[in-house]
Amino acid sequence: MSSKEIKNEKVFSYLEGLRGELPEIRAILLFGKNTATYKFALCHSLMNLNGDNLKTEIKYEDLSEDFVRELHKHHVSCPNQFNRKEPTKLEKAMDSHSRDEINFKRLLEIAQKDIYNNVFRAFQNLGDGTLSKKHMLFENHQSDKKLIITDRLAEILSDSSLVELVKRENQARWRVVEEAWSAGLSTNLVYDYEKQRFYRSDKKVNRVYLRSAVETLVPYQKGLCFFCSNLMTDIHGKEYELFPDVDHFFPLTLLSKEPILSVNPNGVWNLVIACNQCNRKEKRANVPAEKFYNKLLLRNERFAIEHSHGLKFSILNSLGLSKASQIKDKMALIWKTFETREKWSPK
């Protein structure tokens, strides 16, 4: 199977710089170019392949039923699964199935006309290109309607803890897209520190919670602490040194004294995931060193090259911007405001 090099430099550097077991899947969930929310349903179906009887050759039909059931489940809870003004044939079919006008077999037949042509072929497309051979999760044999699982994907599927992590991040990511589309792409995400949730606030809806803050941001950091780059985990409880916390990069106490900057200090642009040790015991109310500012700037610029959903627009809204090209200058102004303060780095 031929592959086209990923042309977008920020996406390429994200993928090549990843550590851990999930670089490809996290890159796909963040930057993939699938139609509507198909990629999330396919990711869900792929993760359900795990088990002792994992096969290397998977037929489309082995995945399609699970795919359609999951897509329909999300459609019921949030009808905005497609970023289009007019409903698609598949949307209409899912509505008919919900009303018991057609059975699941008929819904599956209608869905297969779309998913067989688009989903499996497009899943690994990102950054104006395609995953290279070393990162590829499967080979797509469209003429035979089958996938050949690579060692990379088999490695993930053989580890139940990784499978559960992917499922959580996939569902969380999916909810962000759903809420953004249902809000007409005007979502302005704000962080509620006490409840550890993002919400959007507008005239119609007051505080619609989207998903946990950690699962929203941690894929951009490849599962690593933003500051010390240690691999974080939540399995040992909140007091563990590597437990993932949400941290304001520029402390609230400082930003609140600079209203002239016209930024939302609780916006996504200013939030990172840091381990317990860095966030609670070391950093506190200090401004991080310049190398971390540059890292935050790059991450925020990556948000802006994603597709139309809440995170991208939240970055612009919370910084008071209208265009992605303005991010660098606005953040440079913020940094300059605190440039003379003593800087912090992890021990």
Can you describe this structure?
The chain is of the alpha+beta class. The protein has 2 domains: 9-163, no CATH class; 184-344, no CATH class. It is 45% helix and 13% strand. The protein has 14 helices and 12 strands. A 3-stranded antiparallel sheet has the order 1-5-4. It has a 3-stranded antiparallel sheet with strand order 6-7-8. The chain has a two-stranded antiparallel sheet with strand order 2-3. Strand 7 and strand 8 (206-212) form a beta hairpin. The protein is globular and about 65 Å long. Residues 203-208 have low confidence and may be disordered.
Work out the radius of gyration: 21 Å
Strand content: 5-15%
Mean pLDDT: 81
Total tally of structural domains: 2
Largest beta sheet: what is the strand line-up? 1-5-4
Counting H and I runs of at least 4 residues, what is the number of helices? 14
Which spans of ≥5 residues are poorly predicted at pLDDT below 50? Answer: 203-208
Tertiary shape: globular
Q: What percent of residues adopt helix (DSSP H or I)?
A: 40-55%
Instruction: Compute the separation of the termini in Å.
Output: 46 Å
Q: Give the strand tally.
A: 12
N to C succession of SSEs: HHHEHHHEEEEHHEEEHEHEHEHHHE
